Amino acid sequence: MIRLALVALLAAAAGQAATFEQLSAEAQNARKMDHNDEALPLYQQALALRPSWAEGWWDLGALLYEKGRYAEARDAFRKLIAIDAKAVAGYAVLGICEYKTAEFDAALEDLDTARTLGLPTGHPIAKAARYYLAVLLNSNGQHDAASELLLGLLQAAGKSPEVVEAVGMAGLRMAKRPEQLSGSEAELARKVGEALAVLGQRRVDESLAILENLLKQYPTQPNLHYVYGEVMLESDADKAVEAFRKELELQPGSVAAMLAMAREMERTKRLEQAHAYAQKAVTAAPADFAGHALLGRILVSMGQPKEGAGELERARAIEPGSPQVYYALASAYAKMGRHADAEQARAEFLRLKKLADQEQ
Length: 360
Prior knowledge:
By secondary structure, the protein is mostly helical. The chain has 20 helices and no strands. Helix content is 77%, strand content 0%.
């Protein structure tokens, strides 16, 4: 508090209140010197004089965030984005603060906004923002989107225990947040996450060994046979199909296993079987874009481009940011003779793919 008292003393000696210029300069100087307890009240007083000072709201929010005062930091970052709607890092830290204050819907919206605006991957807050976004997507049932983010984070951030556990949760399609897991659930998620982490390092045999041991311990665990099948696809497609069928015996309504079967049937040109599984998936989960996208692609391959385009357009309406949907739409439109629409879809595919590559 020495600097704050000094500013006030100098101002009193001059017969006037401390100005914004004095307070902001002292606040920033204290921050640079790591005198954060002194900097906080200086920022607060400077912002009271000039509430439009965006940099000040960022610095104040960052100080409060570092101290674990998440509700106060949240309020500061909300002030920041009200001033600057493109403050991408502000949205990211705001979303983390909202997660910490159990405002999960708001956190998901703000973290997704940060991703949409293009938070640089090298930003100090980027890894934490990606982690919390993935956790929230997974808890909302968007397991594949969460897995994509988390597997990329494993490559970028290494095998931190939190990320490994979250990877396992997404693989097992546990629609929970990490803090909601029981002890046994957390242990299982970490082991599955480890199997998926080593798979990312191309250590397929090691990944399979971990999962085979888990299947002996947890033979009826939902989605464990599905995960095993997805890993087994790397080496033995027939055994993978057996695993997906086993998953469907245990969970007849498993959309993930239905789609896995449909993809494998499509890959091996068994289109009638692929169509049947994809149609079941769409019926079971009509709001899932992946089912519509796969069914649309299969229909196009079966010589039904009009019907396929309809399914792909439904997928696009649910998930307008998917490059693969536009790629498939371009093919469907071309086969229908809609060449202008095909060109537009192809251009949008290239644009979205470029953005996705940059994000990776």
